[in-house]
Design brief:
The complex is a heterodimer of chains A (489) and B (102). Chain A is an alpha/beta fold and 489 residues long. Chain A has two domains: 220 residues, 2-enoyl-CoA Hydratase, Chain A, domain 1 (Alpha-Beta Complex), CATH 3.90.226.10; 194 residues, Alpha-Beta Complex (2-enoyl-CoA Hydratase, Chain A, domain 1), CATH 3.90.226. Chain A has 20 helices and 17 strands. In chain A, α16 packs across α18. Chain B has one helix and ten strands. In chain B, the strands form three sheets. Chain B has a four-stranded antiparallel sheet with strand order 3-10-8-5, with no helix packed on it. A four-stranded antiparallel sheet of chain B has the order 7-6-4-9, with no helix packed on it. Chain B has 102 residues and is mainly beta. The longest helix of chain B has 4 residues. At the A-B interface, α13 and α16 of A face β2 and α1 of B.
Chain lengths: 489, 102
């Protein structure tokens, strides 16, 4: 127990009490014991079989919770341990309240053999049934290895803490003995790796207490179940700071921080960013507008020019589906040059990954509002909640450029002959780029077709989105009846 | 600030760690045989300048308790052998240079 504390870890009970409202926690199944009879287990008493389950409230909202206790047999998962977890999962699904799982376990309890595998399977099955019905949150506060990783992977949000969380399918020792590759646990599956490289984690914290604060904030933004809307807060204005029209440079090749734009739009300028470190070329997260939760999807020109690629498509698509499942309207802020070119992207499957974002926007029936700030080129324009994928409202700033591609690329193709035959090809190219820019690099060609509903002044952005959301409140659309679609997973 | 070129336009921006660490693609050279898994060379059946037919076993590479036969991909000749018997090699290690029959 002291060893755990030295690593900056709280014990299972301390964690639950730190996360839930004071005096709100009620524990169940405290007296459950295992009935394993092999390998000396018959003489071992494991208190509560290594896991605590119960109910409580966070910011007065009810939740179901379980926390694995590493100090009891390494938090290993045996039959009764799994039964306690599935009991509280069933409870959460039946009562339609969020489920929070705190994972801190050495893995399957080997002495219980196939029964512990059965336990994992029962948990995965319930994770899948509950998906899109109640919010499911996984908190990785210790090791979570082998099959155990798949429960968090099936849930909506995964929280990790630096130096404490470790997730992997095969550990460093096996990798070394089989493949000869030497790597530390932290480098293989630490918090930073999953937040930055793999995309398995959604929230990264430096301490457990910081992590619990993040969970409380998240809970405040999301509804209790898919049958409800998120609770509204008292409406507030954005803070007075930089003016929205001063943030975006006119030259579409010069970057800015899109988060500054979001903060000029949201109540109190608050924004809860999700997956901040993974694929930061796209931004996802929650804010409030006039007290109501809104999901933001926004290109980030500051990173990789805001392109769509495999990772950013995955990241945005899953978030769009989350918002759609939980009745959260989606606001899309667009400024991107298209998809990222490169052999690595093509070979990594940018076709099927990129398709996810099209799928997610197309099937989403929550209110969908798009604002095009500057560039909206080619496939990127279609993908970012265009009218064609059934955006409800599409606004464009006067600086918007909606075109098949940027003027540079387009001029090279359209005027290839003129440029090649010119006395001074470079000069001719520049002239043709200017010509193309004048004709197409504006919002009016798309507006003439009705693809853009209106060209708006930047300073009107918040009020126009608010009005659009207000008008969309009773939105009702019908999709063809089906068992389920086949998204390009 | 870094520069990223997308369809002829040069964008000022920053890169992610994942983007910076991406491996640039190179066309494979069919005359170079690389290991596809780390392991131990437990036997070598050919010598330099030897003529070898397509499908003939060149050497045995043991990895994960399996003896993998590394075979000649086309009719040709052994140019140079870069490994010795019992040598432990990593993944993507140059094992042998070969050349096709003229």
């Amino acid at each position: 127990m002291e060893m755990q504390a030295k690593m900056g870890k709280l014990n299972a009970r301390e964690r639950i009490l730190a996360l839930l409202d004071k005096n709100s926690f009620h524990e169940y199944d405290l007296f459950v014991e295992h009935s394993a009879k092999d390998f000396g287990m018959e003489s071992k008493v494991l208190h509560g079989d290594g896991v605590i389950i119960g109910t409580g409230t966070i910011k007065s909202k009810p939740v179901c919770i379980f926390a694995q206790d590493f100090t009891v047999a390494g938090g290993s998962l045996g039959l009764m341990h799994a039964r306690k977890i599935t009991k509280i999962m069933d409870h959460a699904l039946k009562m339609r309240v969020p489920l929070i799982g705190i994972n801190d376990s050495g893995g399957a309890r080997i002495q219980e053999g196939v029964n512990s595998l059965a336990g994992y399977g029962e948990i995965f099955f319930r994770n899948t049934l509950a998906s899109g019905v109640i919010p499911q949150i996984s908190v990785i506060l210790g090791p979570c290895a082998g099959g155990a990783v798949y429960s968090p992977a099936l849930t909506d949000f995964v929280f990790v803490v630096e130096n404490i969380s470790k997730m992997f399918i095969t550990g460093p020792s096996v990798i070394k003995s089989v493949l000869g590759e030497e790597i530390s646990m932290e480098e293989l599956g630490g918090a930073r790796v999953h937040s930055e490289i793999t995309g398995n984690a959604h929230f990264f914290a430096k301490t457990e207490l910081e992590c619990f604060e993040q969970i409380k904030t998240l809970i405040s933004y999301i509804p209790r179940s898919n049958a409800k809307k998120a609770l509204a807060y008292p409406p507030k204005s954005p803070l007075k700071g930089r003016k929205i029209e001063d943030i975006v440079p006119l030259d579409p090749r010069i970057p800015y921080d899109m988060r500054d734009i979001i903060r000029t739009i949201t109540d109190s300028s608050e924004f809860l960013e999700i997956m901040e470190l993974f694929a930061p070329n796209i931004i996802i997260g929650f804010g409030r507008m006039d007290g109501e939760t809104v999901g933001f999807v926004a290109n980030q020109p500051m990173v990789l020019a805001g392109v769509l690629d495999c990772d950013s498509s995955d990241k945005a698509a899953r978030f769009i589906r989350y918002c759609d499942a939980f009745n959260i309207p989606i606001v899309t802020l667009e400024d991107l040059p298209g998809y990222l070119p490169g052999v690595d992207q093509e070979h990594a499957g940018v076709i099927r990954h990129g398709a996810k974002i099209l799928y997610a926007y197309s099937e989403a029936t929550v209110p969908k509002v798009t604002v095009i700030l500057r560039k909206a080129y080619g496939g990127g324009y279609i993908a970012m909640n265009s009218r064609h994928l059934r955006a409800d409202f599409v606004f464009a700033w006067p600086t918007a450029e909606i075109a098949v591609m940027g003027p540079e690329g387009a001029a090279n193709i359209v005027f290839r002959k003129e440029i090649a035959e010119a006395e001074n090809p470079d000069e001719m190219r520049q002239q043709k780029i200017r010509e193309y820019k004048e004709k197409f690099a504006n919002p009016y060609v798309a507006a003439a077709q009705g693809y853009i509903d209106e060209v708006i002044e930047p300073r009107e952005t918040r009020s126009r989105i608010l009005h659009a959301l207000q008008v969309s409140e009773n939105k009702s659309v019908f999709l063809p009846s089906k068992k389920h679609g086949i998204p390009p997973f | 600030m870094k520069e990223l070129i997308v369809q002829g336009a040069v964008y000022k921006t920053t890169f992610t760690r994942k983007f910076e660490e991406r491996v640039n693609w190179e066309a494979p050279n069919i005359n170079m045989l690389y290991s596809f898994i780390p392991g131990t060379i437990i036997d070598i059946f050919v010598k330099p300048k030897q003529k070898v037919k397509e499908g003939e076993t060149l050497l045995l590479l043991e990895a994960m308790k399996m003896q993998n036969q590394v075979r000649m991909p086309f009719d040709g000749e052994i140019v140079k052998i870069h490994v010795k018997k019992d040598e432990v090699i990593p993944n993507r290690y140059l094992i042998m240079e070969i050349k096709p029959k003229k």
